[in-house]
Amino acid sequence: MKQNFGNLIAGQTPVLVDFHADWCGPCKMLAPILKQVKEELGDTIKIIKIDVDKNQSIASKYQVRGVPTMLLFKDKKQLWRQSGVLPKEEIIRIIESYN
Description:
Elements: H1 2-8, E1 15-20, H2 25-41, E2 46-51, H3 56-61, E3 69-74, E4 77-83, H4 88-97
Parallel strand pairs: 1-2
Antiparallel strand pairs: 1-3, 3-4
Helix pairs in contact: 2-4
């Protein structure tokens, strides 16, 4: 995953990275919200889920201390970061503000 991560966050399409863990209750609440975000925004966004327990080096590189944490990238640049669960409308508004 580590060697591919740079490729995943490159390019003109914004990439929302969801750092999560299987044992995290709020992460389970966020998953269907992100599914709705993807359905609504379609190809204008990529959404990637990263399990912090299986990808500790990536989580550490981006200083992810709590889950869920969402990071928005475009052209390998981090544009936005938020920990916790947000409503679908808020996530969409944030993504669209960077598009």
